[in-house]
Amino acid sequence: MRIAIVGSRGFPYSYSGYETFVAAVAPRLVDRGHEVTVYCHRGLFKERPPEVRGVRLVYVPSIEHKALSQLSHSAFATIHVAFLERPDVALYVNSANGPFGYLLRAAGVRSCINVDGLEWLRPKWKGLGARYFRWASRVATAAFDVVVADADAMAEVYRREFGSESTTIAYGAAISRSTEPDRVRSFGVEPGEYMLVVARLVPDNNGDLVVRGFTKSGIRRKLLVVGSVPYQDSYATSIRGSGDERVIFAGHVSDQESLKELFCNAYLYIHAHEYGGTNPALLTALGAGCAVAALDTPFNREMLAENQHGVYFTKNDESVKIALERCDVESELIRTLRATARNRIQDRYTWERILGEYEEMFEALVRVKKSP
To answer: Which structural domain range is residue 255 located in?
Structure first.
C-alpha cells in the first residue's frame, strides 16, 4: 500500500508524542513492504534528504506562528496529498486537522485520523484555541473515514462527547535493558538511586505538581527532570526555580541511548500527564522495567492495568508527597513493580501488535474504495 502520514512535525524529529509515534510507525510500515511518505515542516529541517530509513519525505512550508504553524503546514500537505500524491490511504495525527478530512473525501482519498488527547482541555489552549480544538475534534468524526483513539478511555470520550464510534489502536513500545548504567552518572545521579520525570515542561504534564510534592517530602534520593520547551515561558521558569538541591533539571536529552539508560536505571518513574490517551513515555518506562507512580486518570489506569503495574496520586501536593514517600521506603513494592512492568508491554503494547492493527484498518479502507 501507498501510505501518507500528515500532522506531525516530520521524520526524523523529536518533540512530542506525535513525532514519537511517526518515528516508530513509518519505518516499521516500510519494513512490512509498504510505501510510506511523511510530510515534514520545511522550516524545521536544515538538511532535507528525500528519504530516511526507506521513508519518503516531502517538505512543505508553514506559517511560522505558534497558533498557525501546524494548521498551515497540514493545509499545504493536504493539498499535496489530495491532488498530487493520491496515496491508497492517508493517516493524520492531531484532531486539530479534523476539517482537512473533507478535502481528502472530496478527492477520493481514503483517510483516518489519530485524534490523540483531549486538546481542548489542555491549559495552553484557552478561549478561541480551546473552542477550535473541540470543534475540529467533532468535525474529524464526520470528515475522516475512520477515527482512531489510542485508548479505550479516549474512545469513550468521543462516544460521550460527540456520539462517534472509534477504532482503538494504542501506541507501542519496545523492551529495553540497561547495557551502560554508568551513562546516568553524567546527569548527576547514581544508577537505581533517583526518581525520574520525562516530560515537556507544559502545564498539562504537571511537572510543577511533581516538583512541589517531591520537595515537601523527606526523600533523600534525587529527582531528575528530563524535558524542556522550545521557547521560554513563565511556567517552565517557575518549575526550574524550586531551589531544592535534590532536584536536577537535565533539559531535553536527544541521545536515545542515554535516555534509555535513564529509564532503565531509575528507582521510580513518575508520570503526571493528564489529558493524553496512551502516552509513549509511560510505555517506554514500562518497557524499560520501571516501577511507576502516576497521576490517577482513566488513561493511566488503562495503561497500568489498574493497580497491577503502578501506584497512583491525585492532583495535589500532599498526595504526591505521600505516594513518593511510600515508594521510597517500600522497596519490596518497587521490586514487584519492576518485575512485572515489561509484562504489560508484552501483553498489550508490542509494536508488532500495533502495526498489525493499523495494517488491518488500512486494508479495510482500501477494500471499501475498490468495491463496486
So the answer is: 181-348
DSSP 119: G
Q: What is the pLDDT of residues 269-328, one digit of tens each?
A: 999 999 888 999 999 999 999 999 999 999 999 999 988 999 999 999 999 999 999 999
Q: Choose among 311, 57, 27, 276: nearest CA to 195.
A: 311
Provide the grid cell at 121. 482541555
State whether residue 132 is helix, strand or coil. helix
The CATH number of the domain where 196 resides is what?
Answer: 3.40.50.2000
User: Which of 153, 73, 166 lies closest to 114, judged by CA?
Assistant: 166
| Non-local CB neighbours of 331 within 8 Å, separated by 6+ positions | none
Residue 137 and residue 195 share a domain: no
Closest to 77 in 3D by CA, of 42, 46, 108, 49: 42
Pair (217, 325) in one structural domain: yes
246 vs 142: CA distance, rounded Å: 50
203-227 pLDDT tens trace: 889 999 999 999 999 999 999 999 9
Q: DSSP H helical segments within 195-316, as ranges?
A: 207-215, 234-240, 256-264, 280-287, 298-303
